[in-house]
């Protein structure tokens, strides 16, 4: 575990750079850079693209914080804590959902094809998620349930993992930290594979929207499986079925969207044939 990457001193002030905050900044930069590169290759107009990306960058952390607040209200001493600018207390799918809504709205305002934009931004978002999950692993958050299986990891005595285990079972204090599933790395791998799928489908010139939908379906399925191996936060106050239900809805809607996109392409192909 590496909570701090380094410290920098400016006069009498000392600035600490944590692995988690660094991973978020690196994830954002990676997402934007890769998206701009892919969009340039696909000849997407830069000005409306930059406007849409700006909306995404603003809306994603807001959605992630709001969902975390709704599901973990005890993590906030007062309402003003919801608006703090520190890199903590985020729920990934809250950011993805609000970002998706804002992205669609901005596409309509800037006359961009929402499916084409979604495809272009998906690999960058997936790589950004992978980078942030690496930060979670180094930070010791978003950890899994106790496990004695191969591949389980053991965090030190001063880690959030051990403090959580003590809060759940005080007798653990005398036994030492229990090994846990590295769920952060599971999601990291899932995000990387999802990015690869999106890039491969775009290279194969798949129908607009299919790369995004396939990547989203794959990663959501990974999250649905990992959910049952991940420890619930001590501040968790929502029903345990909330996330499984959310994942199920997203998967069903994603499958329906894939079928509709393929059928629309088939109808367009038949229409073109009939005009000859």
UniProtKB/TrEMBL annotation:
<feature type="transmembrane region" description="Helical">
    <location>
        <begin position="50"/>
        <end position="70"/>
    </location>
</feature>
<feature type="transmembrane region" description="Helical">
    <location>
        <begin position="242"/>
        <end position="260"/>
    </location>
</feature>
<keyword id="KW-1003">Cell membrane</keyword>
<dbReference type="Pfam" id="PF01790">
    <property type="entry name" value="LGT"/>
</dbReference>
<keyword id="KW-0449">Lipoprotein</keyword>
<keyword id="KW-0472">Membrane</keyword>
<feature type="transmembrane region" description="Helical">
    <location>
        <begin position="90"/>
        <end position="112"/>
    </location>
</feature>
<keyword id="KW-0812">Transmembrane</keyword>
<keyword id="KW-1133">Transmembrane helix</keyword>
<feature type="transmembrane region" description="Helical">
    <location>
        <begin position="209"/>
        <end position="230"/>
    </location>
</feature>
<keyword id="KW-0808">Transferase</keyword>
<dbReference type="InterPro" id="IPR001640">
    <property type="entry name" value="Lgt"/>
</dbReference>
<dbReference type="GO" id="GO:0008961">
    <property type="term" value="F:phosphatidylglycerol-prolipoprotein diacylglyceryl transferase activity"/>
</dbReference>
<keyword id="KW-0328">Glycosyltransferase</keyword>
<dbReference type="GO" id="GO:0042158">
    <property type="term" value="P:lipoprotein biosynthetic process"/>
</dbReference>
<feature type="transmembrane region" description="Helical">
    <location>
        <begin position="124"/>
        <end position="146"/>
    </location>
</feature>
<protein>
    <submittedName>
        <fullName>Prolipoprotein diacylglyceryl transferase</fullName>
        <ecNumber>2.4.99.-</ecNumber>
    </submittedName>
</protein>
<feature type="transmembrane region" description="Helical">
    <location>
        <begin position="185"/>
        <end position="202"/>
    </location>
</feature>
<comment type="similarity">
    <text>Belongs to the Lgt family.</text>
</comment>
<dbReference type="GO" id="GO:0005886">
    <property type="term" value="C:plasma membrane"/>
</dbReference>
<feature type="transmembrane region" description="Helical">
    <location>
        <begin position="20"/>
        <end position="38"/>
    </location>
</feature>
